[in-house]
Structure formats: C-alpha cells, structure tokens
C-alpha cells in the first residue's frame, strides 16, 4: 500500500495495470517515504500510482518495465519537438562544452532575448526568471508598482503558479477565501472573476478602482480545458484600456504553441505584460 494512495477494489483495469507495472509500483512505494502523496508534481496524481519513466524518444516514453506509451504530455508542453531531438541534442552538447553556470553575463542570454522579442509582440523588455510561478509573481508586483494600485484580478480555474496570491480559486476556494497557509490579508488583495461572463468583468472594473492588473490564461483555465468564449480576450483588452488596468497574459502554456507568437499572436491582442516558461527553455533549466 502506497502512502496516501487509494486502491479500487475488484477493478480489472487497475489489476492489469498493477500486473504490468510492478517496477513503477515498487518505486512509487519507495517515493512515498520521501514525497507527499509519493509524487513531485500535482499533475502526476494517478490511481493507484503513476508510471516511472526509464527513457523517451520522439513522441514515446518507456517505463521501468519496458511498457511503451505515446506521450501526449510532452514534458508539460515544453517539448514541441519531442524527446531527444537530434538537432536540439547537438545544440545542448555544444553549449555544455562551453560551460554550465558562468555566474556572469554572456552572449547566449542576449541571443535568447532577441529571439523572444522577435516572436512575442509584447516583449519590449525581457526579464528571465527561474520559473513560471516567479514570472507571474513579478509581473503582478510590477503592475502594482507601475499603477500605484494594490489589487490583482484573476479568473476562477485559471492557474498561475504557486505563490500566495494565486493559491486559491483554481481547483478550490472559489469564494476567494484563503487556502491554508495563505494570509487572509493577501487573499483580500485578489479579485476573483468569472471566465464566462465578460459583462460581470466590466461591472467589476466599474465598481473597483484599486485593481492594478488582471491576469488570465488566454485560451482558458487548465491550459484551455475550459475554453473562453470567442471574442472574450479581445473584449477584455478593450475593458482594461478603458479602466487603465494592465493586462497580463500568462503564456506559460500557450507561448509559441497556439501560434509562433503565442495567444497574443493568435488573437491579435497585445497585453501589457506576459509570462513565459517551460517551452521558453525547451524543457531545460533556463
């Protein structure tokens, strides 16, 4: 029995899975001694346990028992060219030969920023960060500093990282109350909006005069699993301009995927700030 994992009783599908993945099961049981729920990322919640991958190539992954899977996840969406792409691996080897952590400025970061700026309409200036969570956190801080306002508006079910301002209203606490560990004073600085009612968004901006910015997943919550209505993003841009509220597009999921210029390129809507991650570094540490 793996700590924190519940088994289904008399399930032929589950029993077959367990029989075919004994090594993954053993590794999951060991992982339960170290990690909460025996996993290192929420997306890996699988009953009775997830597979443990031994290798991957192209669009396929192989687990520790030799079972092969078609990979529709693609490294959290970061590996558009698949696993172990030959051209990408050659570039990695070339970069490794020069060093791994200079602790100084280098031309690679300038070249990288130039490529991003050419593709993303909103990228007038670029700040590299360590994660998507850090990118959205800093975008909101910048919005508050620029506008002199304190509150951030966001949409229910839209995910923007793990920092305190975004830790509720995604899969729970849809009333805006703070999740355990988040200060109520922090939660009070966030305005939760309904993603399916642009008129209520407009009314909120009419009523609230201390909103610095609104942040959204531009294709809808859960990486587009709850899509926005056609014209929603375009109308939101109009409303934010009317009320001098900054628009932050969280393009961690959509950047360089739905369009070479991200969702902003797809919709023809230029936000004031954008956040990128994962695919920005091709699944490698940025």
From TrEMBL:
Keywords: Pyridoxal phosphate. The keyword Metal-binding does not apply. Its cofactor is pyridoxal 5'-phosphate. It holds the Pfam family Aminotran_3. The keyword Lipoprotein does not apply. One of its GO terms (molecular function) is transaminase activity. PANTHER family: GLUTAMATE-1-SEMIALDEHYDE 2,1-AMINOMUTASE (PTHR43713), GLUTAMATE-1-SEMIALDEHYDE 2,1-AMINOMUTASE 1, CHLOROPLASTIC-RELATED (PTHR43713:SF3). This is Glutamate-1-semialdehyde 2,1-aminomutase. It comes from marine metagenome.
């Amino acid at each position: 029995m793996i700590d924190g994992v519940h088994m289904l009783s008399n399930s032929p599908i589950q029993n077959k899975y367990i029989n075919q993945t004994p090594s993954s099961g053993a590794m999951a049981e060991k992982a339960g001694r170290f990690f909460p729920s025996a996993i290192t990322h929420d997306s890996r919640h699988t009953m009775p346990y997830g597979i443990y991958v031994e290798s991957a190539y192209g669009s396929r992954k192989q687990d520790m028992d030799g079972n092969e899977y078609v990979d529709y996840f693609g490294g959290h969406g970061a590996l558009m060219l698949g696993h172990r792409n030959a051209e990408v691996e050659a570039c990695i080897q070339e970069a490794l030969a020069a060093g791994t952590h200079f602790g100084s400025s280098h031309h690679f970061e300038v070249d990288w920023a130039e490529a991003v700026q050419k593709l993303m309409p909103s990228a007038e200036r670029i700040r590299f960060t360590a994660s998507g969570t850090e990118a959205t956190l800093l975008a909101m801080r910048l919005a508050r500093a620029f506008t002199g306002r304190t509150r951030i508006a966001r949409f229910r079910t839209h995910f923007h990282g793990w920092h305190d301002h975004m830790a509720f209203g995604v899969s729970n606490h849809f009333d805006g109350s703070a999740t355990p560990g988040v200060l109520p004073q922090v939660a009070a600085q966030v305005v939760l909006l309904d993603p399916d009612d642009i008129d209520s968004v407009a009314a909120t901006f009419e009523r609230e005069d201390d909103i610095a910015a609104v942040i959204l997943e531009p294709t809808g919550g859960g990486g587009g699993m709850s899509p926005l209505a056609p014209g929603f993003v375009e109308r939101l841009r109009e409303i934010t301009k009317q009320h001098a509220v900054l628009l932050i597009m969280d393009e961690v999921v959509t950047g360089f995927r739905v369009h070479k210029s991200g969702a902003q390129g797809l919709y023809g809507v230029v936000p004031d700030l954008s956040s990128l991650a994962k695919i920005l570094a091709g699944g490698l540490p940025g």
